C-alpha cells in the first residue's frame, strides 16, 4: 500500500480517524479547515495532490471524491494552481514520463500541459473522463487536436499570453541593433574603450516598416510610433480602413522595402511566407536598412542576410528565431552588426504566468459546463442539434470566399434560408469567419476569437435569415465584399438523409457538388475543346478528376467549372491550364 500524508506547512499533522480511510485504502491526514493542503503519494505514480479543506466540521478528506481532478503534467507557476480555484483536486505528474502519464490520466477530468508533454491519441484513449486539454502556451504541436475532437474533448491554449513579451523583445532587438549594444558591450568587456567605433542611428524621424499587422505587429507599430517614427506596413489581410484607424500607411511589400529605414517582420510561417525576405527582397531595400525577425525562423533568408550585411547594404540586424532550432552555428554569429538571442520572445515570467492563468480559467469554465472562449476545436462544444451539422459547411463556404477573393473582404454576410432560419444560427457566422481567416491566421481561429480577428483586420460580419428557399429545404449563403466593391458569393446545403455537404452556387452559377477534398475552380471563356485540354493537362500530371460540374454564365461566353481532384495541382500545371483555356481565374481550394 502506498504511503500517503497531507502537509499544510503549519502545525503538527495528526492521523485521520479510521472512518476517513479513503476508498483506495490509503490513509489521509487532516489540516486546519480552510488551509492549503498537500498530499505526496509514494509509489509508481508519484502523484502530488493539492486541494483546500472546505469548511470547519466538514469531515470529508481534502480533495473529496466529488471534486473533478485536474492533472498538471508540466511545470507551471503556482499562480496557475491558484487560478483553478478550490472546486477541483489538483494532481501533478511527470508528463514526459510516458508510463507515469498513462497511469495518472484515467482519473483526470482536465489535463494541463506545456510543451514537454505529448498528448496524442493513446493518452486521450486512456482518459475516459477527460473533458479538456489545456496547453499553457501558444502552440499546439504537442496536442493531437483531431484525436481530441473525435473524443469530444475540448482543446484550449493561451494565444495572447505572450504577445506583449514578443512585441517588447522585437523592439529590444531593434534598439540593440540600431545602437550596436551587443558589440559595444563585448568590446568594453575586453577592456577596450572605443566610443567612436560604435556610432548608432536614431529611430526618431525614421520610417519603420512592419511586415505583418497581426496582434504582435500592431503592438510593435504602436510602441515604435511613440519614438516619433513614421510607420508603414505590409499585410494583404488587413484592410486599408483598418490600417488608417491604427494610423499606419498600408502598402505593397516592394514599396515597404524601398522606403523603410527599419524592417520588423511579424508574419506566421506558411508556404507563402517562408523565405519572404530573401536575396531579391534584400536587394530592394534602402542602403543602411536594419532588419529584425522575432516572429518565425525562416521568414528571413539568413545566408542572404549575412551576405547583405557583409556587403554593407544592410547596416545591422536582430534575430530571435532561426530556420532550424536549436541553432548554434550560423554565418550571422560571426558578424558584430547582428544581435542574436535563442528564441526568447515569450520568455518572461509574466508571459508564463499569463499562459497558466489563462488556461486555468478555461479549465474552470469547461468543468463547470460553461462556454470556453479559447477552445480551438468544434467537437467539444455544445451546439443546437439542428444547427450542428451546418457548422463545417459554413466554415468551408468561408474558405471558398477567401480563395475566390482578390483581397480580404471588408464585409462578410451570411444568410440562412429555409427551415434552418427558425433556429438560433449566430454560430454559423462565426464558423464562416473561421473559414475566411483559416488560411491567413497562424493561431487557431475559434468561435470566440473570430469576431476579434475580424475587427483587427477591418472586416464587418453579419448574419440574416430568410424563410424562403426555392430550391432547397435549407441553404446557407456567404457573401464577401471587397473594398473596391467586388463581390464573391457562394452557397451550400446539406442534402439527403446523410446530410451530405454540397456547394450549390458560386457567383450566381448553379452547381451540385460535394464540398470535400481538393477542388479546382476555373472561370474561363467557354470554347470547343476547353474541357478536354483541362483533363489532358491534369491527367498528364497524374491528377485524377473525381467529380466535375460546368456552369455557363447567364450572359456572355464565360463559364465556371468546379472539379474535385484526388490531389493538389502543381504550379506549372496551373499555369499551363490558365494559358490553354484563357482562364480569367484559377484557384485550388482545400475543402477538407
TrEMBL record:
GO terms for biological process: L-serine biosynthetic process. Its EC number is 1.1.1.95. InterPro entries: ACT-like_dom_sf, ACT_dom, ASB_dom_sf, D-2-hydroxyacid_DH, D-isomer_2_OHA_DH_cat_dom, D-isomer_DH_CS, D-isomer_DH_CS1, D-isomer_DH_NAD-bd. The keyword NAD applies. Keywords: Amino-acid biosynthesis, NAD, Oxidoreductase, Serine biosynthesis. One of its GO terms (molecular function) is phosphoglycerate dehydrogenase activity. Catalyzes the reversible oxidation of 3-phospho-D-glycerate to 3-phosphonooxypyruvate, the first step of the phosphorylated L-serine biosynthesis pathway. Also catalyzes the reversible oxidation of 2-hydroxyglutarate to 2-oxoglutarate. It catalyses: (R)-2-hydroxyglutarate + NAD(+) = 2-oxoglutarate + NADH + H(+); (2R)-3-phosphoglycerate + NAD(+) = 3-phosphooxypyruvate + NADH + H(+). Belongs to the D-isomer specific 2-hydroxyacid dehydrogenase family. Residues 519-592 form the ACT domain. Pathway: Amino-acid biosynthesis; L-serine biosynthesis; L-serine from 3-phospho-D-glycerate: step 1/3. This is D-3-phosphoglycerate dehydrogenase.
Amino acid at each position: 500500500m502506498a504511503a500517503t500524508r497531507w502537509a499544510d506547512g503549519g502545525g503538527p499533522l495528526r492521523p485521520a480517524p479510521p472512518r476517513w480511510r479513503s476508498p483506495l485504502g490509503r490513509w489521509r491526514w487532516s489540516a486546519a479547515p480552510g488551509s492549503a493542503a498537500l498530499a505526496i503519494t509514494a509509489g509508481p505514480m508519484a502523484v502530488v495532490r493539492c486541494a483546500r479543506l472546505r469548511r470547519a466540521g466538514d469531515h470529508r478528506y481534502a480533495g473529496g471524491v466529488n471534486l473533478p481532478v485536474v492533472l498538471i503534467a508540466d511545470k507551471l507557476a503556482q499562480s496557475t494552481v491558484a487560478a483553478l480555484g478550490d472546486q477541483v483536486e489538483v494532481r501533478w505528474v511527470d508528463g514526459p514520463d510516458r508510463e507515469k502519464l498513462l497511469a495518472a490520466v484515467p482519473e483526470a477530468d482536465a489535463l494541463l500541459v506545456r510543451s514537454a508533454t505529448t498528448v496524442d491519441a493513446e493518452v486521450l484513449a486512456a482518459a475516459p473522463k477527460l473533458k479538456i486539454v489545456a496547453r499553457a502556451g501558444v502552440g499546439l504541436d504537442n496536442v493531437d487536436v483531431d484525436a481530441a475532437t473525435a473524443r469530444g474533448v475540448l482543446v484550449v491554449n493561451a494565444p495572447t499570453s505572450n504577445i506583449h513579451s514578443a512585441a517588447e523583445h522585437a523592439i529590444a532587438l531593434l534598439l540593440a541593433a540600431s545602437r550596436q549594444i551587443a558589440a559595444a558591450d563585448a568590446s568594453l568587456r575586453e577592456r577596450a574603450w572605443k566610443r567612436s567605433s560604435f556610432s548608432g542611428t536614431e529611430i526618431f524621424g525614421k520610417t519603420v516598416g512592419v511586415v505583418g499587422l497581426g496582434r504582435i505587429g500592431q503592438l510593435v507599430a504602436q510602441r515604435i510610433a511613440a519614438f516619433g517614427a513614421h510607420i508603414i506596413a505590409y499585410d494583404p489581410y488587413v484592410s486599408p480602413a483598418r490600417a488608417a484607424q491604427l494610423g499606419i500607411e498600408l502598402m505593397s511589400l516592394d514599396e515597404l522595402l524601398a522606403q523603410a529605414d527599419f524592417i520588423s517582420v511579424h508574419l506566421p510561417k506558411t508556404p507563402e511566407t517562408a523565405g519572404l525576405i530573401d536575396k531579391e527582397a534584400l536587394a530592394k531595400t534602402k542602403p543602411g536598412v536594419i532588419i529584425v525577425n522575432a516572429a518565425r525562423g525562416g521568414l528571413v533568408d539568413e545566408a542572404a542576410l549575412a551576405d547583405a550585411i557583409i556587403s554593407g547594404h544592410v547596416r545591422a540586424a536582430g534575430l530571435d528565431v532561426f530556420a532550424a532550432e536549436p541553432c548554434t552555428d550560423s554565418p550571422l554569429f560571426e558578424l558584430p552588426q547582428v544581435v542574436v538571442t535563442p528564441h526568447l520572445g515569450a520568455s518572461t515570467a509574466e508571459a508564463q504566468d499569463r499562459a497558466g492563468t489563462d488556461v486555468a480559467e478555461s479549465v474552470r469554465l469547461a468543468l463547470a459546463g460553461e462556454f470556453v472562449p479559447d477552445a480551438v476545436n468544434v467537437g467539444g462544444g455544445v451546439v443546437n442539434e439542428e444547427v450542428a451539422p451546418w457548422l463545417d459547411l459554413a466554415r468551408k463556404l468561408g474558405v471558398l470566399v477567401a480563395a475566390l477573393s482578390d483581397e480580404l473582404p471588408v464585409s462578410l454576410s451570411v444568410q440562412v434560408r429555409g427551415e434552418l432560419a427558425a433556429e438560433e444560427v449566430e454560430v454559423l457566422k462565426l464558423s464562416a469567419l473561421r473559414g475566411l481567416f483559416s488560411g491567413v491566421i497562424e493561431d487557431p481561429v475559434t468561435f470566440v476569437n473570430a469576431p476579434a480577428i475580424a475587427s483587427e483586420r477591418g472586416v464587418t460580419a453579419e448574419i440574416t435569415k430568410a424563410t424562403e428557399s426555392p430550391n432547397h429545404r435549407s441553404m446557407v449563403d456567404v457573401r464577401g465584399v471587397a473594398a473596391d466593391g467586388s463581390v464573391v458569393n457562394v452557397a451550400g446545403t446539406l442534402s439527403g438523409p446523410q446530410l451530405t455537404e454540397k456547394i450549390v452556387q458560386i457567383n450566381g452559377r448553379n452547381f451540385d457538388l460535394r464540398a470535400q477534398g481538393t477542388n479546382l475552380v476555373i472561370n474561363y471563356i467557354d470554347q470547343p475543346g476547353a474541357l478536354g485540354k483541362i483533363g489532358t493537362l491534369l491527367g498528364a500530371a497524374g491528377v485524377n478528376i473525381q467529380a466535375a460540374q460546368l456552369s455557363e454564365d447567364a450572359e456572355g461566353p464565360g463559364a465556371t467549372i468546379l472539379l474535385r481532384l484526388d490531389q493538389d495541382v502543381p504550379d506549372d500545371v496551373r499555369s499551363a491550364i490558365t494559358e490553354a483555356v484563357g482562364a480569367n481565374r484559377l484557384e485550388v481550394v482545400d475543402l477538407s
